[in-house]
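Notebook p. 47: complex prediction with zinc ion.
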Amino acid sequence: MKEMHEQLLNWIDEERDQIIGLFRALVREKSPNPPGDTRSACDVVKRHLDEKGLDCRVEAPNPIMPNLVASLDGARPGRHLVLNGHLDVFPVDADGPKWSHDPWGAELVDGRIYGRGAADMKAGTAASIIAYCLLSRLRGHWNGRLSLTAVSDEETFGPWGAKYLLDKYPDLLGDCMLNSDVCGPEAIVFGERGPLWLEFTVQTPGDHGANVHKSKSATKIAMLVAGELEALTGTADDKEYVPHNIKNVIASGKETLDASLGAGAGDLIFQVTLNIGVIRGGTKVNMIPSSCVFETDFRLPVGMSKADLLSKIERILQKYPEVSWKEIGGAESSWCDPDHEMVGILQRNVESLGRPRPMPIIALGATDTRLWRYHGIPAYVFGCSPNGMGSQDEYVDVDEFLDVVRVHTLSAFDYLADST
Ligand SMILES: [Zn+2]
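Predicted complex, structure tokens below:
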């Protein structure tokens, strides 16, 4: 085992430039979602595997959103490990603060690689690809099957991406899944809160602004409803949504979350949170608005279902017959075993690089890993820090990236080497 680790680490050192080159090539291929066109990024992955002489196939139920799938078999039958990463990224906010580097340039400055999607998650997807390629050279030394899935459509819940693949090819669930989306090397994500996106529409007759006796105001009603929705946030309620031992593990990850996402992040894991991302209503200052639409982004603590929250929302709306709503996106929260063998493997390999032991945490945002957990498959995220994610000057520290490559490569090997 030790010899194999040394071999893998030597290859990573020897091929450092090529590994960094793959990551930068992925960043340079623009793949913002919307529109989610990942064709050129997927071509980079396919070319890389072709150059290594490794077979793969591309599944594209939506022609602009290809998904690359590749599998390798080891020496003997055994367990199946799936490596998963996404190719689509956030858009660049044209109205937001200006970037000091080209968001699609993958510039390497002072040991950092800048770019939209560098952290979320082209560094991670590159790490999965490298791990896959390096393990292909040691096929006589591990058992079972290793699969690589580089998917599209992750930012919008994956109907054309991971969800499509798993529905069509349930074999890709495997026995365990490893993903390297952002989380920071001090953490291992074993569960995620559940996003619930709703659109509310308020409709009233409307009238002249002076005639408030004639019509209710759609914008005022929207504000009242928004206030009541906000009151649902904070501590969820006293209901036990997860087993006590899991709750303890979640609680012990608070400091790690604060360290990786900033002070206050850890307090959110047991809370319902609300962002009102969009609000539109009214035409003119002296007209009573007849319509107002607003979109809410709730995040639910692990174990609390969408139905739990929707029943509370429906109770509120009974007082407001002018309001209708629909779900425009969402996913149930998920969690898996924080004491699974893969968590121990990741912790050992991170420590072997001289880094502190990473702690299992619940992520505030959602990733495709939930799709595996819904099927009862243990699925973990270990990846780079979320520097500038979703804002400007997103970057990844090159040394951190290389350590993420090392940890994924060694951990995939360890899981399969122990496989019988
Ligand atoms: Zn991501």
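Notes: Residues 86, 120-121, 154, 181, 367 surround zinc ion (CB under 6 Å). Residues 103 and 115 are 4 Å apart (CA to CA).
Next step: compare against the earlier run before touching the bench.
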